[in-house]
Design goal:
Largest sheet of chain A: 5 strands, mixed
Helix content of chain A: 10-25%
Shape of chain B: elongated
CATH superfamily of the largest domain in chain A: NADH:ubiquinone oxidoreductase Nqo5 subunit
Number of domains of chain A: 2
Structural class of chain B: alpha+beta
CATH class of one domain in chain B: Alpha Beta
Strand order of the largest sheet of chain B: 4-1-6
Chains: A alpha/beta, B alpha+beta, C alpha+beta
Order of helices and strands of chain B: HEHHEEHEEHEHH
CATH architecture of the largest domain in chain A: 2-Layer Sandwich
Number of strands of chain B: 6
Oligomer: heterotrimer
Strand order of the largest sheet of chain A: 1-2-7-6-3
Strand content of chain B: 15-25%
Shape of chain A: flat
Order of helices and strands of chain A: HEEHEEEEEEHEH
Radius of gyration of chain A: 23 Å
Radius of gyration of chain B: 26 Å
Chain lengths: 211, 196, 387
C-alpha cells in the first residue's frame, strides 16, 4: 500500500479544496491518521472508496471520541539576562486545546486486502456546532455505528438517512459517553461495601429530609 | 428419494436415544443434588482470605495494601486499613485490615484479586452453594466469614497451594538469611569495636 | 408475538396506509421477550399478509455502557468484562482485547502462548458454530433435539475450559503478552481426544440436518445477501463469506501465528441461508484441522512476555486498533491511551451489531416465519450487540 504522504498528495490533487493533515501517533502500533476538512470529507471518502489503487471498500470501524477543553502545561527552559548574568529560568507555557468531538473511521480494502487507513473528522465544538458529514452514503456499514456515535457522544451526522438513538431509549436526554457526563442519582438503596455508593445514598437521604 | 434424509435423521435420533441407556457419552447429565460431578481443581467461585495457624485473626496474611480493591473490576471489595501494626508470617510488623468486606452479590468471580495480590493472601474458593434468605446482609461477607485456613486452601486447590507455600517458604528463608547476615554483621562490628 | 398497532410510531413515519389490494398492513412488535430473537431483541415488523414490508431492529435493552465502564477501570480490569460481550466466545473476545493492548504497548507474545491462544480460539469457534447450528435448526421448528445434541458437545469443550481456566464461560484467560496459566500435558492429551470426538459428532450432526428436505426447502434461496451489499455494509465473518467474498482476518492479517497452519476458507456462492449454514459446518471442520496441527506442534517455553506488567500497567500515549476473526465476524478493539492506567477511549467493534445493519434488506419480501430464521443466521448475541 502507498504511504500516507502519497495518499494525501493524491487526494489533494483529485479533490480540489480538500485540506488534509496527518496526525501523529506515538504508540508502537504506528497507526497514523488523516484529518479531513468537513466540507470535502464526503468527496474524499468517495475518492478513497472508488480509487482503483486504494479501493478502500470496507469501513471496519467507526467511532466517536470526546475531547473536552484541556489546558496543556508545558515546562520550557528559557535563558534570561538577569542583572547582566545569563540565567536559566523554567517557564510554564499554557496552551488550551479547544473542545471538539471527533469521528474516527478505520478503512480496509477487501479487494486488495490492505489497510488500515484511518480518517478523522472533527466538529467545531461540543455545543451547538457538533456537526460532521455522514459517510453512510459511501459505506453503509457506518449506518448503525454513526447512530451509536450520535446516541452516545452527541455528534450530529449531516446526511445520515436515519439518525435516531440506537442503544439508549428515545426519550433519553444526555450523551453518556462524553467525559463530563454525570450519572443520574437514582440508586436503589442496598447495603454495599462501596464507599461512593454509600456516600451518594447518604447525601440523597439528607436531601430528602431537608426540604 | 423424498424423505430419505428425514429417515437418516431419525436413525441418528434413535442411535442417541438407545445409546443413552448404555453410553455415558450420550447421556452426560447427572441428577443434582443427589448426584454430583467431581469439581475441577482450578474451579473458582468467590474469594476468601487465607490465614496461617489456628487463630484466624492472628494468622491473616492480608496486609491491607488495597491493590485488590483498586483492581477489582466490579469494585466489590471494601477495605479499611488498621491504625496499628501486627506481626505477619515473617515476624515483620505490618498493617492488617480493620475491615475487609466482599459483596458477593456484586463479585463476578473473575479471580483478578487473587492474581494481583503480592502477599498470597486472597484466593478463590470453590464453594458455590451460597444461597441465603437475607438478600443484603447474607451476601455481604465480612472478614470473619472470608477467613479460611491454609489447610482449606490446600484441600481445594492442592497444586496452587503448594506453589503458594513454596513462594512463602522462599520469602521466609530470604528474610531469615537477611536477619542472620545482619546479626553476623552486627557481631562482627561489635567485635571490631571492642578492642578499640 | 403480540400485535401492537402503532407500537412505536416514530419508526414508521413513512408507513403506507394500505396495500394494492385494499387490505390493511399489520404492524407487529416481535420481541423483546420472544424465544426466536435470541435474547432481548425486538423487530418492529410491518406485514402485508405474511410478507414483510418493513422491518426495523430495536435493541439496547441490555445496554450497560461497557465502554464507559472500561474507561473508568484499569486495562487489566476490563479483561473480565470482555468475557461478557459475546458470552459464547469469551476466549476470542479476550484475544481481540489483548491483541489491541499489545499493539498499543508494543508487547510480544511467546510462542507457546500463541499456540495456546490458537487452540482456545479454534475450540471457541467450534463451540460457537455448533450452538449456532443448533439454534438455527430450532428456529426452523425442530424443537430441542438438535440443539440439545449441540449443547452436549459444547459442554465437553466447556469442561476443557473449566479444567484449565477455572470457569466454563467467563474464562478471563488471556493476559497482555501471554496467557494466565500454563496448560499441562494431560490437558493437551485430553483436548486431542475431544477433538477426535468432535469430528465424529460433526458427521452425525450432518447426517441429522444437512440433507434434510425440510431444512433445504426452508433455507435455499431465502434471505439472499448480495456480494456488493455485503461488502459495502461492512458485513464480516461467515455471513460475508457465504456471499462469496474471500475475506478472513486470519488469512489477511495473519495475526498471532495463523500463517503456520494449513487451512482453507470456505466460501459460499448464493449468499442464502443454506450457504450461511453450510459455511459454518465447513468452518468447524477447518477449525478441527487447525486444532490438530496446533496440538501436535505446540512447543515448550515461557507463556508470558518478560516485559509485561501485571500491576501498574501504563502504556505510552497513542492509539491502536487491533482486530481478529471471531466466530461471529471481525471483532476489533480501538484504544486510545493518554499515559494513565485507564484507557482514554475504549471502543469495541462488535461484529454482530454491525451485521444487523442489513437485516431489513434480507427480510424484505420474505415471509415473517423466514424473518426468524434470517435473524438466526446472522448469529447475534445481545451481550455484544447492546454492550
Amino acid at each position: 500500500m502507498e504511504t500516507l504522504e502519497q495518499i494525501k498528495a493524491r487526494i489533494e490533487s483529485a479533490v480540489p479544496g480538500a485540506v488534509i493533515t496527518i496526525l501523529p501517533n506515538e504508540s508502537p502500533s504506528g497507526q497514523l491518521s488523516l484529518l479531513l476538512s468537513n466540507s470535502q470529507a464526503l468527496a474524499v471518502a468517495k475518492f478513497l472508496r472508488d480509487d482503483s489503487a486504494l479501493c478502500l471498500d470496507y469501513c471496519s470501524n467507526m467511532t466517536g471520541v470526546d475531547w473536552p477543553e484541556l489546558v496543556i502545561k508545558n515546562k520550557v527552559k528559557k535563558k534570561v539576562m538577569f542583572e547582566g548574568v545569563e540565567k536559566e529560568v523554567e517557564e510554564t507555557l499554557e496552551t488550551v486545546r479547544p473542545p471538539y468531538l471527533e469521528a474516527v473511521y478505520h478503512l480496509y480494502s477487501m479487494a486488495k486486502k490492505h489497510g488500515p487507513v484511518i480518517i478523522r473528522t472533527r466538529t467545531e465544538d461540543r455545543g451547538a456546532k457538533n456537526h460532521v458529514p455522514s459517510l453512510t452514503p459511501i459505506w453503509r456499514g457506518c449506518e448503525f455505528q454513526e447512530r451509536e456515535a450520535y446516541d452516545l457522544f452527541g455528534i450530529v451526522f449531516d446526511g445520515h438517512p436515519d439518525l435516531r438513538r440506537i442503544l439508549m431509549w428515545d426519550e433519553f436526554k444526555d450523551h453518556p459517553m462524553r467525559k463530563d457526563y454525570v450519572e443520574p442519582d437514582d440508586y436503589e438503596y442496598e447495603p454495599t461495601p462501596h464507599d461512593e455508593v454509600v456516600e451518594k445514598v447518604k447525601a440523597r437521604q439528607a436531601k430528602e429530609v431537608a426540604p | 428419494m423424498l424423505g430419505e434424509a428425514i429417515i437418516k435423521g431419525m436413525a441418528v435420533t434413535a442411535k442417541n436415544f438407545f445409546g443413552s441407556y448404555v453410553s455415558k457419552e450420550r447421556l452426560p447429565t447427572v441428577q443434582y443434588p443427589e448426584e454430583r460431578l467431581v469439581p475441577k481443581e482450578n474451579a473458582r467461585q468467590f474469594p476468601f482470605l487465607v490465614y496461617d495457624g489456628d487463630d484466624w485473626e492472628k494468622g491473616l496474611r492480608c496486609v491491607s495494601c488495597q491493590i485488590c480493591e483498586k483492581e477489582c473490576p466490579p469494585k466489590c471489595i471494601y477495605i479499611i486499613k488498621s491504625k496499628d501494626k501486627k506481626p505477619d508470617y515473617k515476624g515483620q510488623a505490618q498493617f492488617y485490615p480493620a475491615r475487609f468486606d466482599i459483596d458477593i452479590s456484586v463479585c463476578m468471580s473473575c479471580g483478578i484479586c487473587a492474581e494481583v495480590c503480592p502477599f498470597e493472601s486472597i484466593k478463590m474458593d470453590t464453594e458455590f452453594e451460597l444461597s441465603t434468605g437475607d438478600r443484603f446482609g447474607g451476601l455481604l461477607l465480612p472478614k470473619e466469614k472470608l477467613a479460611k485456613s491454609n489447610e482449606h486452601y490446600r484441600k481445594v486447590h492442592p497444586t496452587d497451594a503448594a506453589a503458594s507455600d513454596a513462594v512463602l517458604a522462599a520469602e521466609i528463608a530470604k528474610a531469615e538469611a537477611k536477619a542472620k547476615a545482619a546479626a553476623e554483621a552486627k557481631v562482627k562490628a561489635d567485635a571490631e569495636k571492642k578492642p578499640a | 408475538m403480540s400485535a401492537v398497532a402503532g407500537a412505536n410510531p416514530r419508526n414508521f413515519e413513512l408507513l403506507p396506509k394500505g396495500d394494492a389490494n385494499g387490505g390493511e398492513l399489520l404492524e407487529i412488535s416481535m420481541g423483546p421477550h420472544h424465544p426466536s430473537t435470541h435474547g432481548v431483541f425486538r423487530m418492529d415488523v410491518v406485514l402485508d399478509g405474511e410478507k414483510v414490508v418493513k422491518l426495523k431492529p430495536v435493541f439496547g435493552y441490555l445496554h450497560r455502557n461497557h465502554e464507559k465502564i472500561a474507561e473508568g477501570t484499569s486495562y487489566l480490569a476490563s479483561m473480565p468484562y470482555t468475557d461478557r460481550l459475546d458470552y459464547f466466545c469469551s476466549m476470542t473476545n479476550n484475544w481481540a482485547y489483548a491483541l489491541s493492548v499489545e499493539k498499543l504497548a508494543g508487547l510480544t507474545v511467546p510462542e507457546r502462548a500463541e499456540y495456546i491462544r490458537v487452540i482456545m480460539a479454534e475450540l471457541t469457534r467450534v463451540l460457537n458454530h455448533i450452538c449456532l447450528i443448533g439454534f438455527f435448526v430450532q428456529d426452523m421448528g425442530a424443537l430441542g433435539t438438535p440443539l440439545m445434541y449441540a449443547f452436549r458437545e459444547r459442554e465437553r469443550i466447556l469442561d476443557l475450559f473449566e479444567e484449565l481456566t477455572g470457569a466454563r464461560m467467563m474464562c478471563n484467560y488471556l493476559r497482555f503478552g501471554g496467557v494466565r496459566c500454563d496448560v499441562s500435558e494431560s490437558w493437551l492429551k485430553r483436548a486431542g481426544e475431544e477433538v477426535v470426538k468432535l469430528e465424529s459428532f460433526m458427521d452425525e450432526f450432518e447426517q441429522l440436518v444437512a440433507q434434510n428436505e425440510i431444512v433445504m426447502a426452508r433455507t435455499q434461496g431465502i434471505g439472499v445477501l448480495p456480494r456488493e451489499l455485503a461488502i459495502n455494509a461492512s458485513i464480516t465473518g461467515p455471513m460475508l463469506r457465504a456471499s462469496g467474498v474471500n475475506y478472513d482476518v486470519r488469512k489477511v492479517d495473519k495475526y498471532g501465528i495463523y500463517d503456520r497452519f494449513e487451512f482453507k476458507i470456505p466460501l459460499g456462492e448464493h449468499g442464502d441461508l443454506y450457504d450461511r449454514y453450510m459455511i459454518r459446518v465447513l468452518e468447524m471442520r477447518e477449525s478441527v484441522k487447525i486444532l490438530k496441527q496446533a496440538l501436535r506442534d505446540i512447543p515448550d517455553g515461557p507463556i508470558m512476555d518478560s516485559k509485561a506488567k501485571l500491576r501498574g500497567f501504563r502504556p505510552k500515549p497513542g492509539e491502536a486498533y487491533g482486530r481478529i476473526e471471531s466466530p461471529k465476524g471481525e471483532l476489533g478493539f480501538y484504544l486510545i491511551s493518554d499515559g494513565s492506567p485507564n484507557p482514554y477511549r475504549y471502543r469495541v467493534r462488535p461484529p454482530s451489531f454491525i451485521n444487523l445493519t442489513i437485516l431489513e434488506d434480507m427480510c424484505l419480501g420474505q415471509r415473517v416465519a423466514d424473518a426468524v430464521i434470517i435473524l438466526g443466521s446472522v448469529d447475534i448475541v445481545l451481550g455484544e450487540v447492546d454492550r
